[in-house]
Amino acid sequence: MNSDNSVLSLGEAARRFLAGLSAEEMAASQQEVYQFVRWYGADRPIDRLTAPEVGSYAEKMSLSDTDYARKLELVKAFLVHARKEGWTSTNLAIHLKPKKGKTPVPLSSKRRSAEPVSLSRQSYTQLEADVAALKAKRPKIIEEVRKAAADKDFRENAPLEAARQEYGQLEGRIRELEGMMKSASIINDEDKVKLKVNNGDTVVLADLASGEELRYKLVSPREVDPAHGKISNLSPIGKAIMGKRQGETVEVTTPGGKLRYQVKQIEH
Hints:
By secondary structure, the chain is of the alpha/beta class. It has helices at residues 10-19, 23-40, 51-62, 68-84, 121-136, 138-149, 158-182, 189-194, 236-241, and strands spanning 117-120, 184-187, 202-207, 213-219, 230-232, 249-254, 257-267. The strands form 2 sheets. A 5-stranded mixed beta sheet has the order 5-4-3-7-6. Strands 1-2 form a two-stranded parallel ribbon. The chain is flat, with a radius of gyration of 19 Å.
């Protein structure tokens, strides 16, 4: 057990956890672990987290997207590691469960075809350029990870941690953009102006802090179905994005402060 466990922050705990993963594991875990950290605040002592708070985060995740079961497992791995390292006095991972009454989407379950998203021709071309630019960075970052990993002192290897974080962010962003392009439906500028969030629409939001993208479908409270990404138009996020247009920015208040999102796509 480390001597500074009592003051270890969530942000520092996350950095130490991710630094011990392989580049591939970090790419899969980084965004969701940091999303958990931002929700409660990176400077908050990890040993101050409570079981009810962790349980409520699981419900928040279940309302976010159809991939929440996989994301729950990634956060659980972080919390299990925190207990093993002595950063927390109990195993908080056991409280991170899917919302009662809702069946998690199996990790192997995938949609046969993605729902189309609306993009202007200019936006689609820009996406192609962005993906090409990101892929061009791969060789350099992979080499940086390899060189940093040559230092066997992983616990204090700041260059390795930084290189892994950069690699994970790069690969995550490439997957997000390629997924968007595969399901894109090109619209003209006149149609783009008309797009406005209404009840029944599916909305793609981009977290301005991490770049992570989430998909929501706004429905009435009686139609809420977390397993299929359907959230209430009266929920905090629903209220924030109702009536907004593509490109606008919204803020959602959380226990850890305000999260800012940009409305990337609106699908009627």
